[in-house]
Amino acid sequence: MTQEPSGGLDGLGSAQRAYQLIRSSIIEGRYRAGQRLIEGRIGEEFSLSRTPVREALRLLEAEGLVLSIRNRGAIVRPVSPKEVIDLYELRARLESLGAERAATRATDAGIAELDAAIAAFDAAIPATDHIELTENRILSQANSRFHDAVIEMADHARLSQLMARTVDIPLVFQAFRVFTREERVRSNVFHRLIRDALEHGEAARAGALMSEHILMGRDSLVARLDEAQVKDALFLGASGEASSG
Amino acid sequence: MTQEPSGGLDGLGSAQRAYQLIRSSIIEGRYRAGQRLIEGRIGEEFSLSRTPVREALRLLEAEGLVLSIRNRGAIVRPVSPKEVIDLYELRARLESLGAERAATRATDAGIAELDAAIAAFDAAIPATDHIELTENRILSQANSRFHDAVIEMADHARLSQLMARTVDIPLVFQAFRVFTREERVRSNVFHRLIRDALEHGEAARAGALMSEHILMGRDSLVARLDEAQVKDALFLGASGEASSG
DNA sequence: AGTTCCCCAATAGTATACAATATGAGCCAT
DNA sequence: ATGGCTCATATTGTATACTATTGGGGAACT
């Protein structure tokens, strides 16, 4: 129930399945920062042998979600506040590049997809600041839909790969949990502004808006990094060893 | 001696060794674009079992050097001219960010390292346009030393990882082969300009210079993409299937 | 001759077995 | 009591064995 028994990922190899399962467990916080990821145990948990689990862990390590030390195993990579800030700065640059390129390559279909994503985002904004896991998933998904569509229009294979695989994601997912309703609304305002800039082929504006959009998200998140709860929710490196007792 | 029998990579795991060996084989062109990378064969070649080879291939896939299709195996990823251009644009942005950050974080030790790299680069420039593999290695190494030092000063862990692992490298290595002597000299002129901007903390200039430096490299490379030999040397996607007959 | 189908060889995907390494507990000496 | 040593155990690293998938070649048929 809280698990995803084949959440649409049948027909995949065991390794892919392991990858998706572990990944979502990390992103959504079921595996906490610093927690050890023991190949054998995870294998049991998902009824797989160590081989595909190991492969998945290595991929996640390349993505930066997992930290592993030779002969000692892997843990969920803790993220420091500095790293959050740096990651958002990086993401701002990358997506800004994506937006600039998208502006000169915009298609009707692409703009339509942006509109759809914007509508979905609007529909997914709850009335309150507090947000449930399910609501967060939907909101986060609508947000991804928008950003993915922009990157798609940028027509830059490696940039897409980088955005999808290398730059955060867990941060983005968790970010929406701590945003206020106002901040969520503001996010979509910027989505609309970016959309318009893209439609009119205004590359510089699109890039600047995207950058601003992301840095605003960063600031909202950073403003809440002091709250202990938030730290925990975002897996900031309180850990090392989680004193389980 | 064209092989690297343990080129300083003893004391590493088999997987690491496999990774380094395959990687350098791709970067230096011993494995050509489109060539199949069969786990078993590579295992034999390096006296390893399939397991670590497989792990290495997966890492290289994440890096973008290898393309693999489920149940069909891996090949050396061919690179199209468009991709070369896009990759350089991406690299320009990333390194530009690195330079901007480095400007506000410069240390004496870091500047000293830049000076050392610049001196090494000067020393490595041959008198002629033509360049031997060994000379290219040394030149490329000096160049990496400079760029690594800048990124190091940027103090951005993920950015470092991205530069090291995700953005090209094979392109950079091959680029020096097709540069003229004049272009190599010009490269180091920009290295000096960047160094000075960093020393004086001028972030915007450092970023702009770095961007220009990389885009100039791109243009030099692109200008030679038509020559059939060069295409081959850079592994551009002539392939797919090399019509051997 | 061309086309289809089936079977086989090659290869990737996964599981298991074995080897190497690291950590912690308990013991001994001081 | 404390510090260091040894060994047991848990876990990773690597090799091998087994299974599944794919692509190609040849036989049979049209």
Q: Give the structural class of chain A.
A: mainly alpha
Oligomerization status of the protein chains: homodimer
Q: What kind of sheet is the major sheet of chain A?
A: 3 strands, antiparallel
Taking all residues together, what is the mean pLDDT of chain A?
89
The first-level CATH class of the largest domain in chain A is given as Mainly Alpha
- What overall geometry of chain A do the principal axes of the alpha carbons give? globular
CATH superfamily of the largest domain in chain A: GntR ligand-binding domain-like
Describe the structure.
The structure is a homodimer of 245-residue chains. With 245 residues, chain A is mainly alpha-helical. The first copy, chain A, has 2 domains: 14-76, Winged helix-like DNA-binding domain superfamily/Winged helix DNA-binding domain (Arc Repressor Mutant, subunit A, Orthogonal Bundle), CATH 1.10.10.10; 81-232, GntR ligand-binding domain-like (Four Helix Bundle (Hemerythrin (Met), subunit A), Up-down Bundle). Chain A contains 11 helices and 3 strands. Chain A has helices at 14-27, 39-46, 50-63, 81-103, 108-124, 133-154, 157-166, 170-178, 181-199, 203-223, 228-233, and strands at residues 36-37, 66-69, 73-76. The radius of gyration of chain A is 19 Å and the shape is globular. At the A-B interface, α3, α4 and α7 of A face α3, α4 and α7 of B. The structure holds a DNA duplex (30 and 30 nucleotides).
